[in-house]
Specification:
By secondary structure, the chain is of the alpha/beta class. Helices cover 58% and strands 9% of the residues. The longest helix is centred in the last third of the chain and has 35 residues.
Amino acid sequence: MFVLNSVPGGVQALRRCLAALALLCAGAAAAADTLHIGSKRFAESYILGEIVRQVAEPHAKVEHLQGLGNTAIVLAALQAGRIDVYPEYVGTIDLEILKHRQPASMGQMRRELAAMGLGVAVPLGFNNTYALAVRGDADAPRTLSELAGRNQLKFGLSHEFIGRVDGWRGLAQRYGLAQRPEGLDHGIAYEALQRKQVDVIDVYSTEARIGHYGLRVLEDDRHYFPRYDAVLLYRLDAAQRFPAAWRAISGLEGRISEKDMIAMNAAAEIDGKRFERVASDWLGAAPSKAPRHNLLAKIFDQDLARLTRQHLTLVLLSVALACVVGVPLGVLAAARPRLRQSVLGMAGMLQTVPSLALLALLIPLLGTIGTAPALVALVVYALLPIVRNTCTGLLQVPEGLTLAAQALGLRPAQRLVHIELPLALPVILAGVKTAAVMSVGTATIAAFIGAGGYGERITIGLALNDHGMLLAGAIPAALLALLTQGVFELLEWAVMRRRQLRPAPTAAPARRR
């Protein structure tokens, strides 16, 4: 618990904390001896990232930052230097990243990427195009053109596909589709289609679940979708910094066929194999330990200690920083009635900002992914209960005690530190408890930008529609939230017990401000 002498002092403390955090994150991002590989949040990208990691590992120190979210987030991480290379697709580079209205040549794409300090290389050997799929019923449409006029069909499309330049908007114009799609996470789209909750979903052509669920991929009879040949998008300096590893990675060129990729996706999505094992099996490495499918085995997996440490670090640091910011703001709101509603309103407004939108904005602002933007987001969401309870606790201090302190000649800062904050401490602690419990749950979003924690399992579970993996992330987070609440309950009990053992002062009615 932070007890600050004054608002200016709290601001100085915040500056020191943020400066130390910035230096820490800058040092981590600047680790020139580590090749950082990224991947998006779907099974194929996880697998390809693991293949690149295992090929490069004998030649350099390598780290795979898994499941970094959509194209915008992983591209921001690449441009910021937080990752060095990740699997991408030519069509995505052409239309989504470079914003071309018409497909461009590889030469033009390379020139434009080079101006950004990026390069494209190592075509892996398969095309994974976008497509739309329906249930394989006899009366189901067979081409995209047949969707026009069938307004009764319900479209459940991934959020990225709806927003992409080469996604729904252009597709609807090309085929004259008047339906209004609903956003649906890609990991659960297949199950929603099977349950007839939706009728049309977007798919990747190399997904094994297409055949597993017996779906019909609609023919692109007006040739809307470009080729999405799998390649590696990388920072140009990465090939120079890691020459031996880059030569090994370049050896992957043309080696992965579409059949191979479908089989690897099936091993992960249907058979439940870990991504690292799928990659090692394809590379012909020594067989790894067989996966265990029961829930307890997934919860107490080898990565539990690492994920717990990461999650605890995020929660403790974010709540500490939120106290450094929130307690002075609460003091200000209590002391300045004219500013009270503005301060509380601002804290409340910040809490309403959607988490993923905030993270996507913070990555280019901070120039990194991982801990720094995750902490900033968590601090923003933890502020409201701390600010509000600090203000409320101070307003509940009996006015008689304040008047007595003034009569004794105590200055405002002395009254705040020695009388008002100690008396308001139980209420302030209740706000900190609320912020801490909320942060345990909110910290799961940190995995979407490579900060780890229990959310890492949740993102994998979403990518594979693996309910067991989802629970393996959600259950430890829930238990940690209960433990956090219990710790603060004991702390509040200790504070109240200590106050009860002291003689109760004669107090005047609470002051009104």
